[in-house]
Amino acid sequence: IRDRYQRRVHGEWFLNRQKDHKDGKTFQITHQNLDIKLRDDLERMKKIRLHRGLRHYWNLRVRGQHTKTTGRRGKTVGGAKKKD
User: Fold this and answer.
1) Do the beta carbons of residue 27 and residue 15 sit within 8 Å?
2) How does pLDDT run across 29-52, given as a tens digit for each residue?
3) Nearest to 26 by CA among 40, 51, 44, 6
């Protein structure tokens, strides 16, 4: 997918690494490099204290989902009812 013909056919939106934060280029990444880039991006977000990075650090939902009732586990599941 790196050659110019396929970029012209599919467009840059088809590539999985758009506007890299280091050099601003758009390119396709293979499996091994994709894991490394994803980990580096998360570490960068945590380091500069981005809201998205902190949500990753706290293991919370990142993309704006509701969290009051969905995805609960552990002590937060259910409520204790008072006995009369």
Assistant:
1) yes
2) 788 888 888 888 889 889 999 998
3) 6
